Amino acid sequence: MTDVLERTPTRTTPRAAQTAALGVALAALATVVWSGSFVTSRALHDSVPPVQQAFWRWIVALVAVAPFGARQAWRQRAAIRRHLGFVVLASLLGVTVYNTLVNQAGLTTPAATMGMIMAASPVLMAVFERASGVRLGRRRVVGLFVACAGVLLLMGGGAGFAAGDLWMIGAACCFAAYSALLRRRPAELGGVAFLFTTFLVGAGLLLPAQGVSLAVQGGFTPTTATVLPLVYVGVASSAIAFFAWNKAIALVGAARAGVVYYLQPVCVALLSWAVLGETVGPVQVLCMALILGGVMLGAAG
């Protein structure tokens, strides 16, 4: 898997158009797969403690990525040591803290609302991108605000406030910071090696919290209803989705990928309706149309 780490091209060429299309497609793939993790987190809220959900998710992800990334990480160990601070920060934001906050929010916040709040992260991604000197095209900015308006209208159209919403706001901030940080990933750190290393470091950082959770809350009973969702979030929502998202950031940047991320509340709302029986009314459908329109406009900008 070849790693590409470059700024978004300023001129439209056939190669640039193909790169942009691939980046947008990978961002959409990650977004759709991640939507299922919000539903899974909500479904497991009364059977698996949040920290244990996160810990076993990353253990499964580590096992899934190891055949592809462990050898590369070993070959690049000198580069990893040189950039250890960057690796630890990325692991802390994107692995250790982000998903744990999502699982904590799932105790009290409906899955659809979790997806709506997470849709605020593209605004933060764009702010971080702009602060680092990346210019944002006019169409992208307009698309971002159209999609953001859809999210705000959706939240104001009946979504009540729960304690878990604060955890989700923290998760959105962590994910946005992680996505912006990826833009500065050293070129010598290969994508699969970087992924394996962040999963390993992130799971290691979770070990103390895992020990406390086991001592205070006890473990959970491994059943089909608990193990299969953890396998899903470990393999699909972690190994596959994080690779696709990291690659998308490298190809098109956090701002453009962030616009595509606005698809998440739409996907989560539909999945929560189909799987969990959460309601989707006319206001939600109208807002989803706004979000999709903003994504199409911003992704092309």
Automatic annotation (TrEMBL):
The keyword Iron does not apply. Pfam families: EamA. It is a multi-pass membrane protein. It comes from the Bacteria. The keyword Iron does not apply. Keywords: Cell membrane, Membrane, Transmembrane, Transmembrane helix. Residues 22-155, 163-297 form the EamA domain. InterPro entries: Diverse_Substrate_Transporter, EamA_dom, EmrE-like. The chain crosses the membrane at residues 16-34, 54-71, 83-101, 107-128, 140-160, 166-182, 189-207, 227-245, 257-276, 282-300. It is found in: Cell membrane. PANTHER family: INNER MEMBRANE PROTEIN YTFF (PTHR42920:SF11), OS03G0707200 PROTEIN-RELATED (PTHR42920). Belongs to the EamA transporter family. This is DMT family transporter.
